[in-house]
Design a protein that fits this description.
The protein is an all-beta fold and 355 residues long. It has 1 helix and 32 strands. It has a 5-stranded mixed β-sheet with strand order 26-27-28-1-32, with no helix packed on it. A 4-stranded antiparallel β-sheet has the order 2-3-4-5, with no helix packed on it. Strand 24 and strand 25 form a beta hairpin. Keywords: mRNA processing, mRNA splicing, Repeat, WD repeat. One of its GO terms (molecular function) is U2 snRNP binding.
Length: 355
């Protein structure tokens, strides 16, 4: 029997959450940024979901958001034909980068000196952030709007995805190295530097490819259309979410489905593991982000697990309690056996804590 997931629900957005990204681990912990159709990207403490601030300035839906490695800068991509770079500490806008169409994706190089953008005009752009007045370098070749663009291979190469194509580019020569074609729309793409793995979702498929050669590694088939997937940093687990409102967790090595549960009250648009792998975040059409434990029942962040007999809480009567229970501050959440991980009635009774 599995233990019940108790997510942290992060409210604040008023429209669907369409993208999210974690920073690296810094001396102050790690951070989470979310992109939303309400045009107001938000910064949160990554392990608790606590709201830190909102970046104000876009005049349209924000489709993409990212943080640099040390969480000192943020970048956003929006429907107002701009990408913006922000001071992630003060919240100040540092620069606005004008485009000719909707911008969908942004990504910093490891040294934070360059920003990669892509969007509906089918062009990849590389901005030198130390020379804001300079024109960006442009890479053409996509035949439809670009959904995602990422630096890879220590910023020597670029990965980009449009509707049904994933392309690998050489940064130095600005030329295409290789491409993958799909028979249906690519919904998401994630790059894992350790091991150079590329995670691609399309339809019900979750596919893993070499980020260096684009050669296939393996693929899984989910029960429903998947919009996003993320691989655990240690490559132990995979999580995915999509149109059926559910989150799925798989064993990466065997492909076995380990967990599935209704995660939101609308389709799930984005899911990502934290940099330490202890939790993963999901963003949904329902306007919320939720944080989930990778290993349920572990003390981490706001999740506190107490062994019976260690304090007065263990004296509370509950015939179903076994092993331990978790609480958030003063709210006690008993971890109980559940008969079915897919039961809506059980899910609806799952306590949630709003961060």
């Amino acid at each position: 029997m599995a233990m019940r997931q108790t997510p942290l629900t992060c409210s604040g957005h008023t429209r669907p959450v369409v993208d999210l990204a974690f920073s690296g681990i810094t001396p102050y912990g790690y951070f989470l940024i979310s992109a939303c159709k309400d045009g107001k990207p938000m910064l949160r403490q990554g392990d608790t979901g606590d709201w830190i601030g909102t970046f104000l300035g876009h005049k349209g839906a924000v489709w993409g958001a990212t943080l640099n490695k040390d969480a000192t800068k943020a970048a956003t991509a929006a429907a107002d034909f701009t990408a913006k770079v922000w001071d992630a500490v003060s919240g100040d806008e540092l620069m606005t980068l004008a485009h000719k169409h909707i911008v969908k994706t942004v990504d910093f190089t490891q040294d934070s000196n360059y920003l990669l953008t892509g969007g509906q005009d089918k062009l990849l752009r590389i901005y030198d952030l130390n020379k804001p007045e300079a024109e960006p370098k442009e890479i053409s070749g996509h035949t439809s709007g670009i959904k995602k663009a990422l630096w890879c291979s220590e910023d020597k190469q670029i990965l980009s995805a449009d509707d049904k194509t994933v392309r690998l580019w050489d940064h130095a020569t600005m030329t295409e190295v290789k491409s993958l074609n799909f028979n249906m729309s690519v919904s998401s793409m994630e790059y894992i530097p350790e091991g150079e793995i590329l995670v691609i979702t399309y339809g019900r498929s979750i596919a893993f490819h070499s980020a260096v050669s684009l050669d296939p590694i393996k693929s899984f088939e989910a029960p429903a259309t998947i919009n996003s997937a993320s691989l655990h940093p240690e490559k132990e687990f995979l999580v995915a979410g999509g149109e059926d409102f559910k989150l799925y967790k798989y064993d990466y090595n065997s492909g076995e489905e380990l967990e599935s549960y209704k995660g939101h009250f609308g389709p799930i648009h984005c899911v990502r593991f934290s940099p330490d792998g202890e939790l993963y975040a999901s963003g949904s059409e329902d306007g919320t982000l939720r944080l989930w434990q990778t290993v349920v029942g572990k003390t981490y962040g706001l999740w506190k697990c107490v062994l019976p007999g260690k304090n007065f809480y263990s004296e509370l009567p509950n015939s179903k309690m076994h092993g331990f229970f978790c609480h958030f501050s003063s709210l006690i959440l008993f971890q109980e056996e559940i008969a079915s991980e897919n039961s809506d009635s059980i899910y609806s009774s799952t306590p949630e804590v709003k961060a």
